[in-house]
Amino acid sequence: MSKPGVRLIAVTAALATAGLTAAPAATAATVTETAPTTTAATTAPAAGDPFYAYDGSEPLSSFAPGAVLKTRTLQYHLVGIPTPLKAIQLLHRSTDAQGRPSANVTTVVRSLTGDGSKAVSYQSFYDSLNPEDGPSRAIAGNLTLGGVIPNAEALFMAPLLAKGYTLVIRTPRDSGRTSPRGPSTGPTPWTRSGPRPGPRRRA
Description:
The protein is of the alpha+beta class and 203 residues long.
């Protein structure tokens, strides 16, 4: 990533931590819901975005855990401000805390200078049961008080992008609130057998 791009991420994330989370929500850019092809199209607000709900004709239970249901490409946002980075979001079949089929979103962010040969799985430490506060919604342009952490986390992600790493950012509980007891995440396209503890890096 170029130095201006890294500087933009760092400055915008610093603004988020300074308390500018009350600014009006911006709209997400270039969204089209298709499966499994990634395309770009019209603008839609992140809040109430239909992308996060599975609306296919087949029962969700008929898909294997980790199966991709929809994809879209949009600009990576920080505190509602679009950046030059492109993000690919995948709605995939997962499992909720009660063991029922659910749909979650994983976001893939490609470095502007990387060749895609190395990746880091980034696990957000956001603390909210409200799906609107999750990393995938913040990346799409949603702006909420509970979403300040996903925006501020750009301070940790910018150095990885500058080194050419692709970021894989999971967002559990995208399909709704879950109980804090028991498991809160399930398989993704990268972890078909379920979540594993600790950071994962593919060199």
